[in-house]
Specification:
Elements lengths: L1 H9 L10 H27 L9 H35 L2 H16 L2 H9 L7 H8 L1 H33 L3 H10 L2 H29 L3 H6 L4 H12 L2 H7 L1 H16 L20 H24 L5 H9 L1 H26 L4 H16 L2 H22 L1 H6 L1 H6 L3 H21 L3 H12 L4 H29 L3 H6 L7 H10 L3 H27 L4 H19 L12 E6 L12 E6 L5 E5 L3 E5 L5 E6 L10 E4 L5 E5 L4 E5 L5 E5 L11 E7 L5 E6 L4 E5 L5 E5 L12 E7 L4 E6 L4 E6 L4 E5 L1 E2 L5 E2 L2 E6 L5 E5 L4 E5 L5 E5 L1 E2 L5 E2 L4 E4 L5 E5 L4 E6 L1
Parallel strand pairs: 18-19, 24-25
Antiparallel strand pairs: 1-28, 2-3, 3-4, 4-5, 6-7, 7-8, 8-9, 10-11, 11-12, 12-13, 14-15, 15-16, 16-17, 20-21, 21-22, 22-23, 26-27, 27-28
Helix pairs in contact: 2-12, 2-16, 2-17, 2-18, 3-4, 3-7, 3-9, 3-14, 4-7, 4-14, 4-26, 5-7, 6-7, 7-9, 9-13, 11-12, 13-17, 15-26, 16-21, 16-23, 16-27, 17-21, 18-21, 21-23, 22-23, 23-26, 26-27
Length: 848
């Protein structure tokens, strides 16, 4: 009977863990669509010559060696630091294992860029060290590299610990006990422990190494150039998957090797037929002390730094008004990604043929190891190919825009995250698979149970808590994923991670701290539930109840979005610009102004200042003198025709003549009168006075005479009346002697007279009529109305001089009349408004 059962079981190539063939086949289909197809497209793009002019081979080679070195340091340090915690996790008592596991999960689920931000608060420009680094760029680069490397080590050591713990579990206790009687600690480590743990430690090193190589966000925040950050720049410049595929070959080779090794090592993770007892540690005081120190630096200290730097509770109420929908929608996207990830992993484990299984597992791990942006771009390319072939076969699909709507929906973000994190689900599901499952299946079959009933009534009760715990883990990873999200996120879709990164980049400390603490509280709850589920503690029913309540509340809150946005479709008169670094092309343009002769000036993230005719014909390109520390975000034409550029990261204002030559400059780094931290924009009174806004700690408006001599200042950092939080743009009504200030992170327009007296505010935080969400720029029309460019709401809103909303125009999207993260706006003499559509790398011209 047993032989018949085994032969019958082996006759099936697909038989999922527990026997649910429907789920297994569905998982394999998802694997083919979300992982195999994008990888195939990536391979095809990498061998096809494309965009060679964008790739600086010498620079890429230099960055490759630099990235290899940083990744090796991070991985080696992570393995060394993770050795003791890994041993504790494998050899402690059940209660001790619960504590270790919870600490490891809490450290892992906090995103790397959040840990970096917390420690970088010590380097704030308003601190003594921050002021020194702002002046000495060479020292600043070293400190940034050291800080980033240290932070990444603090994040990756739990990864190494989890893999090393699996190796400890496979050490026979009898061998270990015998060595304890015959050898000292060092000889036992050298002759017994190290040989037995060599493979898990090498595996931990390889995983940490390849993941560090593809790191983008943390290095990007720190301004450290690596292969990962360079890939981001190349995508901004080219928008081509072929360019990225060809530039990413060093990481790809390492990722392929690591994926194959990890896939082939999977068979050793399943339980043997007769389980050998694991090692039990006798003395653990030193290990617990080391774990405590690591936890302090990796988890407790960053949280304390965030709390200490919190000055007011107002950002929390503002978060509820403006960002709660983003967090909830991000959780729902993450939940969908976790479901897809587990289905893919389930399908991979369903295959009985080992060679095919190894190949599928290797592709899943490869998708996890490759830079997330590269996989995301391949996924977009795949959907574009589907759209093309559907158009050839069924014209109706193209005319109705089914695939296009799919590309602009939240589902594509979940698909990208599932591709990214299916490897995590696969690793955890492998731990639930053992030979005892076959024995249980055979016993159930003898009783006449079907494969589905065997899975439902025999295997699921034994493994559901581990599956639920892995589900939560992927949800937490997905909520904070940045690289894939930035590529896949449709314009206008609320996303917590993207907004948090923007807040960090633009030094909005209080908003960032509030967002981080709310996320930490949410993740703390989920990590606690995950630890309960992983360990199967009696309280798991409470954990599942709490989890259900959490997601029901999330669904309810996100269902309230959007909130009363009713925008009119604008009359699009023209548009110009496209992605690229040539004349007339843009890479994320961020500032615009129009001269008296109707010349249009635009500056983008490459540090290029371009002048256009009113019809969008490029007539001049000027490169900023310095861009290593950052690029300008504001410019304004003076009444005399000179162009004033707020050279933000060099703490000065540059004055260009009509010929494109620098004729003067004023300002330097500092908090004193006449100094700047990060100047944002310039406006003019008409009587010779010059107004300059700045952020970064000063958050004030400074007033200068026509020669750049300081006269006075008004405003200070904060969210109370008379205070400013990132005054992003200035605009003056000379006839009424009124200065309008886009108080961006307070989500309002501040109205001052030319003497700096606050008259009133226009707008309040929100998404409805008369409300504002990150107003980044504004301009005055001939009738006195104010056109406000809302970065956060992807629209233009008009206010009359009294502050009443008289119209909202545009919506989020990629078509003409739609906007993707608009940064700036200007009006010509005919009241046509020119909008910097940054996310679409173009300028649109509307008639309202």
């Amino acid at each position: 009977m047993t032989e018949r059962l085994i032969s019958s079981s082996d006759a099936h190539d697909i038989d999922g863990p527990g026997g649910s063939r429907f789920l297994s086949c569905g998982g394999l289909v998802l694997w083919a669509v979300l992982i195999l197809a994008p990888l195939a497209i990536l391979f095809a793009c990498s061998i096809r010559p494309a965009g060679a002019d964008y790739i600086d081979s010498a620079r890429m080679l230099s960055l490759t060696f630099k990235t290899f070195g940083l990744a090796a340091i991070i991985a080696l340090s992570a393995v060394v630091l993770g050795y003791i915690p890994g041993r504790l996790l494998a050899t402690s008592t059940p209660g001790g294992k619960d504590i270790v596991l919870l600490l490891l999960l809490l450290t892992l689920v906090l995103p790397r860029y959040m840990l970096y931000y917390a420690w970088s608060l010590l380097l704030d420009p308003t601190t003594q060290l921050g002021r020194f680094l702002a002046v000495d760029i060479s020292v600043a680069r070293f400190v940034a590299s050291f800080t980033t490397t240290t932070v990444l080590v603090m994040w990756y050591w739990p990864v190494a610990a989890l893999l090393i713990a699996q190796g400890w579990k496979n050490i026979d206790s009898e061998v270990w006990d015998s060595s304890c009687l015959e050898a000292g600690a060092w000889m036992r480590f050298k002759n017994i422990t190290l040989p037995l743990l060599a493979r898990p430690m090498l595996l931990a090193f390889g995983v940490c190494f390849v993941l560090s190589m593809s790191e983008f966000t943390t290095f990007h925040l720190a301004g450290v150039e690596t292969v990962g950050t360079e890939l981001g720049v190349l995508y901004e410049l080219s928008g081509s998957e072929g360019v990225l595929a060809r530039a990413a070959w060093p990481i790809s080779i390492v990722a392929v090797a690591a994926a194959i090794i990890l896939s082939m090592a999977c068979k050793k993770w399943t339980s043997p037929e007769i389980r050998i007892s694991s090692v039990e540690s006798r003395s653990q005081k030193g290990g617990w002390s080391i774990l405590a120190v690591l936890t302090v630096f990796s988890l407790i200290a960053p949280v304390v730094l965030l709390v200490v730097h919190l000055r007011t509770i107002k950002p929390f109420t503002q978060f509820i008004k403006l960002h709660l929908d983003e967090l909830c929608i991000s959780f729902l996207i993450a939940a969908c990604a976790a479901i897809l990830s587990h289905l893919i992993a389930y399908g991979a484990l369903a295959l009985r043929r080992r060679r095919i299984s190894v190949i599928i597992n290797a592709t899943i791990f490869l998708a996890m190891f490759l830079p997330a942006s590269v996989i995301a771009i391949s996924l977009l390319k795949m959907f574009g190919s589907i759209d093309h072939f559907a158009g050839l076969l069924y014209e109706k699909y193209v005319s109705d825009g089914y695939v296009d709507r799919l590309q602009q929906s939240w589902f594509i973000v979940s698909a990208g995250h599932a591709c990214r994190f299916s490897g995590v689900a696969l690793v955890i599901l492998l731990l639930t698979k053992g030979s005892h499952r076959r024995h249980l299946s055979e016993m159930a079959a003898l009783d006449g149970a079907s494969r589905f009933k065997t899975w439902l009534y025999v295997h699921l009760p034994c493994t559901w808590q581990l599956l639920a715990g892995s589900f939560l883990l992927i949800v937490m990873f997905s909520v904070t994923e940045i690289s894939a999200t930035m590529v896949l996120l449709p314009a206008g879709l609320a996303n917590f991670a993207q907004r948090l990164l923007n807040q960090m980049h633009y030094a909005r400390d209080q908003q960032v701290i509030a967002s981080c603490l709310i996320l930490i509280a949410s993740f703390g709850l989920l990590a606690f539930i995950a630890a309960l589920l992983f360990r199967g503690i009696r309280l798991r029913r409470f954990g599942m109840l709490a989890l259900c309540v959490f997601f029901v509340c999330t669904l309810g809150i996100s269902g309230c979005y959007p909130n009363g946005r009713v925008s009119t479709a604008p009359d699009v008169d023209d548009s110009f610009g496209r992605t690229g670094r040539g004349a007339g092309e843009f890479v994320y343009p961020r500032a615009i102004d129009i001269a008296a002769d109707q010349t249009v000036a635009v500056i983008d993230k490459t540090g290029r200042l371009q002048r256009f005719t009113p019809k969008g014909e490029c007539k001049q390109v000027i490169n900023m003198p310095q861009i290593d520390k950052g690029k300008p975000i504001g410019l304004s034409f003076a009444p005399n025709g000179n162009l004033y550029v707020a050279d933000t990261h060099y703490h000065r204002v540059l004055v260009y003549s009509d010929a494109g030559e620098i004729v003067s400059e004023f300002g330097e780094y500092g908090k004193d009168d006449g100094c700047f931290i990060y100047p944002t924009d310039v406006a003019f009174s008409g009587d010779g006075r010059i107004f300059v806004g700045e952020y970064g700690g000063n958050d004030r408006i400074s007033v200068f005479d026509k020669d750049g001599k300081f006269l006075s200042s008004f405003g200070s950092f904060g969210c109370d009346e008379g205070q400013l939080s990132r005054p992003a743009s200035l605009c003056s009504d000379i006839s009424k002697k009124i200065l309008y200030v886009a108080d961006a992170c307070n989500h309002r327009i501040a109205v001052y007279d030319f003497d700096g007296n606050l008259k009133k505010y226009i707008g309040s935080p929100g998404t409805g009529i008369g409300q504002l969400r990150y107003p980044y720029d504004l301009t005055i029309l001939k009738n006195g109305d104010i056109a406000v460019c809302e970065y956060g709401n992807n629209r233009i809103q008009l206010f009359d001089p009294e502050g009443n909303s008289v119209g909202m125009y545009g919506s989020a999207g990629r078509e003409l009349g739609q906007l993707a993260y608009p940064w700036a706006v200007a009006a010509d003499k005919d009241d046509r408004i020119f909008i910097v559509d940054a996310g679409n790398n173009r300028v649109q011209v509307w008639e309202l």
